[in-house]
Each structure stands twice: as C-alpha cells, then as structure tokens.
Amino acid sequence: MTMPIALTIAGSDSSGGAGIQADLKTFAALGVYGASVITALTAQNTQGVSAIHQVPSEFVTAQIDSVFSDLRVDAVKIGMLGQAATIDAVAAGLVRWSPKHVVLDPVMIASSGDRLLPADAVAALRSKLIPRAGLMTPNLPEAAALLDESVAETETAIEKQGKRLLEMGCSAVLIKGGHGEGAESIDYLIRPDGTVAFAAPRIGTNNTHGTGCSLSSAIAVGLAMGEEMEMAVRNAKVWVSAAIRAADRLDIGHGDGPIHHFHRFY
C-alpha cells in the first residue's frame, strides 16, 4: 500500500495538544503517514509554557537528512523553530531536498501568550524561510508582527497585509481569523491572482489549544494527497472546525484544552 507521507518540522508540546504531537495526530486522523523533526522541547500544559529547550541546529540537520534520505516526503509542515540557527538549518535542508509542498506556520506566540520566537530570529524567518514556502499560515497577530504593523481589523486591511507578505517571496498566504471577532471566523487565502475567504461559525469554547498547528498540518495532508491549494485549505478548515466543535467532549487539563483530533472516530 502506497500511503502519502507528510513531515512536520516543529517543537514538541509535552501536554500533547499542539506542536509535533498535534501535527502527528492530524496526519494520522486524515490518513497520511507522519514523520517528524523536533526543533525544540517545551515544558508545557494547557495553562502555558514554563520552559523551552532548543535542539541544537546540527541535530535538526541530522533529523532532516535522515528522514529525506529514506522517506518519500510528499509535503512538509513547518511550525515552531525557536531560534535563528534552527531557521538556517531548516532553510538549508529545504534547499538540499527540494520538497514539492512546504506549508509554513510562522509560530511566534503561543495561544497562552508566551513568546516562542525571539525578535532576533524574525529577520531570518523573513529572509530565509518565507521565500521557500508554498503557503504561509499566520494568524492576525503574527501577520502584523511579521510586517511591524498593527493587527488588521477589516477585510481590506487583512488583504493588504497578505499582499505585503507575498512580497517576502512565498507563493500564497492564509491569514487566519480565529483571533478576530464576530459571529464567523474567516480565513483569507491570498495569492497573486486574488483572494478567497473561508468562513465558519465561531464556536463558543476555550478548548482551542493547537488549532493553528492542526490547521496547517491538515492543509499539508491535502497537498500530500494531491489536492489543489484552495481545496486543501477548504477541507482543512472544515475538519478543524469539526475538531473544535467536538473539543468539549474531552476533559483535558485545567486550562485551555486541545481540539479533538479524532472526532471522526470517537
């Protein structure tokens, strides 16, 4: 049996709700084989991040080369990188192995508000990694931070920021509206040839830990399976929305719990 393979390059979440763990759960739930490159270890739970241990960049390189030299990787999802040296290692790995699909989730701030990417690494992200992404998936605060601007509050402002992010060299930008307000959560897929909006009802739950990681991973799954970009984003949005709706079935931790990755099964 030939199964699509997706690779996540990201940090570990010790509580299992976000990061590498969320990515691998997403891959498994949606029917692709998941491989991983761990960039950082976090001491983390549903209430926040208490410590971060960076994986040496040389070991990140070793993981990347081990995976690509043996596995046929159909799509790559990149999440938390943590430091400039890791960004350099990942960018160099993409140059060496030239994966067809790269989805970059520019993880800069955790859902809890903890900063996950120091300011000195943001320049490396802009110049070395964003130009190698087929799709970048910032939320509203991340898009603003990458541009050194205020958070966009209107559809026109969001589209303008998306077009400015395209100028950094990526092929497409999905600005996620989960941090916005209103009855709907609207994500905007912005490409040189136009913008497509994906709306879903805003769900009343605090159990949204790992939503961004899981959405970018679900898009990578669609691309690994051969879907076109717009269809991959649309299907991922539907799946994540269902996982958020089902999140309250779980009772995990004392803070903001995870989404329900396996809502289709139990």
At a glance:
The mean pLDDT is 93.
What does this entry look like structurally?
With 266 residues, this protein is of the alpha/beta class. It has a single domain, classed as UDP-N-acetylmuramoyl-L-alanine:D-glutamate ligase (3-Layer(aba) Sandwich), CATH 3.40.1190.20. A six-stranded mixed β-sheet has the order 3-2-1-4-5-6. It has a three-stranded antiparallel β-sheet with strand order 7-8-9. It is globular, with a radius of gyration of 17 Å. The model has no long low-confidence stretch (mean pLDDT 93).
Largest sheet: 6 strands, mixed
Helix segment tally: 8
- In the CATH hierarchy, the architecture is 3-Layer(aba) Sandwich
CATH topological fold name: UDP-N-acetylmuramoyl-L-alanine:D-glutamate ligase
Uncertain spans, ≥5 residues at pLDDT below 50? none
What is the 3D shape?
Answer: globular
- Give the percentage of residues in beta strands: 15-25%
Quick tags:
266 residues; alpha/beta; UDP-N-acetylmuramoyl-L-alanine:D-glutamate ligase; six-stranded mixed sheet; 8 helices; 9 strands; 38% helix
Q: Helices, strands, pairings?
A:
Elements: E1 5-13, H1 19-30, E2 33-45, E3 48-54, H2 57-70, E4 75-78, H3 84-97, E5 102-104, H4 119-129, E6 135-136, H5 140-147, H6 155-166, E7 173-175, E8 184-191, E9 194-201, H7 211-224, H8 229-245
Parallel strand pairs: 1-2, 1-4, 4-5, 5-6
Antiparallel strand pairs: 2-3, 7-8, 8-9
